[in-house]
Amino acid sequence: RTYPAIRDHLLPFKDKLKARATKQEWFELQQAQLAYQPRMVKGKIAYQDVCNTNTFVLDCAGFFLANTCYFIDSDEAWLAAFLNSRLVGFFGAVLPRKREAGIFGSSPNSLSRRLSLT
């Protein structure tokens, strides 16, 4: 009501936004991602977006991750070890984007494309 231009822009996406809405209204973009909750409470391989080396952690306790951490839906210890290996780090499969001062970044999309996980 207050921002009709924004409402008009979002209206074509209403059905898709409604499908992902939980307790919020369809136009409230910051949704609680309840769809991920069952996958978060079980074992997973967690990693952070900004790092200076391979930083994959096997989480068997079902911790929830913060805004710049991601996870791979697997509790395979060998995969976590492989992702942390010097070989993977050397070939850059895990660290696709070099940022300034030797810091690297890895988004879930770029990681899955490089490792063919999806």
Question: SSE string, helix = H, strand = E?
Answer: HHHEEEEHHEEH
What's the β-strand tally? 6
Radius of gyration: 18 Å
Q: Kindly state the percentage of residues in helix.
A: 25-40%
Structure annotation, total helices: 6
The side-by-side strand order for the widest beta sheet comes to: 3-1-4
**Uncertain regions spanning at least 5 consecutive residues:** none
Structural class: alpha+beta
Rounded to the nearest angstrom, the distance between the terminal CA atoms is 40 Å
Task: Report on this structure.
- The protein has 118 residues and is an alpha+beta fold.
- The protein has 6 helices and 6 strands.
- The strands form 2 sheets. The chain has a 3-stranded antiparallel β-sheet with strand order 3-1-4, with helices on one face. It has a 3-stranded antiparallel β-sheet with strand order 2-6-5, with no helix packed on it.
- The chain is elongated, with a radius of gyration of 18 Å.
Q: What's a quick, concise take on this entry?
A:
With 118 residues, this protein is α+β, with helices and mostly antiparallel strands.
List the helices and strands and how they pair.
Blueprint: H1 4-10, H2 14-20, H3 37-40, E1 44-48, E2 50-51, E3 56-59, E4 69-72, H4 77-83, H5 86-91, E5 97-98, E6 104-105, H6 108-115
Antiparallel strand pairs: 1-3, 1-4, 2-6, 5-6
Can you tag this structure with a few keywords?
6 strands, three-stranded antiparallel beta sheet, 118 residues, alpha+beta, 16% strand
